[in-house]
Each structure stands twice: as structure tokens, then as C-alpha cells.
Specification:
By secondary structure, this protein is mainly alpha-helical. The chain is about 60% helix and about 0% strand. InterPro entries: DUF6463.
Length: about 150
């Protein structure tokens, strides 16, 4: 695999910031939703969301909070891998982060979903500042066709 033309700084990396947000999500669940975490733990974790339908909502908020953190860590790792290999984030990073951030902020305006938006802007900036040049491999004009 070819070396990237430039490396994305960790401070400007949409991947690194996604991983960081995911880690904070998982680390903070006990402080943000202590009743949910306590209820899941008291139910023995495995099968706890379905065990008692009356407690499904209470347990579900902690579950989804951690699940979002795990998703952000995985998504961020994939973005960072692409940044390291190609010198820019993948094209899908910006719309994915914008869509999830806007959706979450619209439904819960007083939330951390707004943090998806600056990460999306980092991804967009990374895409725009590392466009392939006209003379990049695969962009040669076809001399035979006169193009």
C-alpha cells in the first residue's frame, strides 16, 4: 500500500475525536444514568433488558448510552485507519456524523449530540484539504483517445 501524501494530525482527526467521544460515553454512563446501570447490574447483566418489562425503559437508556459509545469507538477506529492509509477521512464520515448529530440534537436539544457536529466538520475539512491532484495516479488523460 502506498504511503499517504500527508498524515492527519491526531488533534485534527475525526477518527481520534470519535474514539474519544465514545470512551467518554462509556466512562460517564454511571454518572449520567446511575439508576440504569444499577438496575442492569442487580438483574445480572445478561438478559437484563428483557427480564422485567416494567424496568426495560430504565435499563434501556444505559444500554443505548454504552452502545452509542461502542459504535463511536468502532466508527472512529475505522475513520482513523482510513486517515492513516489515505491522508484523509472516508467520504462517508461527514454525512454519517452530521446525520446522527442533527437527528439526536433535534430530538434532545440539551444533549451531547451537538458534539457530533464539530467532529463532522473535522472530517469535512480533512476531505477538502486532501483532494487528489489532477496528476494523481488513475487520473491520467487517455492519450490515445485524445482526452
Amino acid at each position: 500500500m502506498a504511503e499517504p501524501t500527508s498524515r492527519v494530525s491526531p488533534l485534527r482527526s475525526a477518527g481520534v475525536w470519535s474514539v474519544a467521544l465514545g470512551l467518554v460515553h462509556i466512562a460517564a454512563v454511571g454518572a449520567v444514568y446511575p439508576g440504569s446501570v444499577r438496575s442492569i447490574r442487580e438483574a445480572g447483566v445478561i438478559g437484563s433488558l428483557d427480564a422485567e418489562p416494567a424496568l426495560a425503559e430504565r435499563r434501556g437508556v444505559g444500554f443505548w448510552y454504552v452502545t452509542t459509545g461502542l459504535f463511536l469507538i468502532g466508527q472512529g477506529a475505522m475513520v482513523r485507519e482510513h486517515e492513516n492509509a489515505h491522508g484523509r477521512p472516508p467520504a462517508t464520515a461527514t454525512p454519517l456524523l452530521l446525520l446522527i448529530g442533527a437527528w439526536g440534537a433535534a430530538l434532545t436539544p440539551v444533549s451531547g449530540f451537538w458534539l457530533f457536529l464539530p467532529i463532522a466538520l473535522l472530517a469535512r475539512r480533512g476531505r477538502r484539504s486532501h483532494r487528489p491532484s489532477e496528476n494523481a495516479p488513475g487520473r491520467e488523460r487517455n492519450a490515445v483517445a485524445g482526452g
